[in-house]
Structures are given as structure tokens and as C-alpha cells.
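Why do we care about 3D structure at all? Because function follows from shape, and shape follows, mostly, from sequence. That is the central idea of this module. The next example makes it concrete: a single protein chain, its amino acid sequence, and then its structure expressed as C-alpha cells.
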Amino acid sequence: MKTRGQMKFKTVDLAYIAICTALMAICSWISIPTVVPFTLQTFAVFIVLELVGGRRGTLAILTYILLASVGVPVLAGFSGGLGSVLGLTGGYILGFIFIGLLYWMSEALIGNMLPIRIITLIAGLLVCYAFGTGWFMVVYTRQSGPISLMTALGWCVFPFIVPDLAKLALAVVLGSRLRRVIRIEN
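And the structure:
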């Protein structure tokens, strides 16, 4: 039998996950269409992890991707469905899971000191880039013919490095301050 405290904690977790999932959807709708749409999705992923921690943040990311997979229009351009999640740029969306898992694992094994969090988010972003670019190349090759790694990086990664690092820095600063104000416990 669970105590009231344990049940309340789970309710709080679900509320945080739902709010963070909604935040990711809203940030994805703020979009500049390119081959890989320029959105605030990565900012949302970073700030969600900074605010609610690795476990709840990763669950929010998974919930977001699940909603997109079943057709809820939570992705850039108000799109959704398996075609979007498994499409040309879907690897970058699925790569968000790696950012969350790395953050969660880092929190559990090393702790959540600021330098560790920043390094973990950068490492997660690099893994997301690698996974997404590999995915892009496979899908693009099947749809349109072979593509070189440098072309894929030029379309999908290089234009986003500086903006993504700026979003990461902003998320770390805002997340740290908001966590103290809102008093979110990890």
C-alpha cells in the first residue's frame, strides 16, 4: 500500500511531465522552415531537463514523441504522425531521447553540478546530431539517391550549431534560476 506522500509525488511527476510535454510542443511550433526546420525544440528539451531533471525530462521527451507518433500535431509546422517521426528529419526528433537518457544517466552517476550538466547537454546534442544525420542520410538515399556526409552535415548540422549552443546556454541559465524560484525538487 502506498502512502499519501508517495501518491502525491507521482501526481506531481505526472503534472511536471505533462507541462513539459506541452512546452516542447509549443516550442516546436515556433518554426522557420528549412531542410531541417529551425525551431525551439532543442531549447525546450534542454530547459525541460534543466527544470525537472533527467528522469522526468526523459519521460516528457518520450511522451512528446509518442504523441507525435500517434498523429497529434506537436511537431514543427503543426505536423505529427509516424511519417513525420520516421521521415527525413525524424532522426533528430528521436535523438532527443539520447539527450534525455544521457542527462538522466549523468545525474544518477555523477551528480548535477553545473559543469557536468553543461557537458552532458553538449554531449547529448552531439549524439543527437550524429544519430539524426545518419538517419537523414539513410532516408534521403532511399528517397532521392546517395548523399555525402558533408552535404548532410551542411544541410542539417552546421547551420544549427551556434543557435543550438545559444539555446543550450539560455536553457541552463533560465533553468537554474527558474528551478530556484519554482522550487522544483529532482
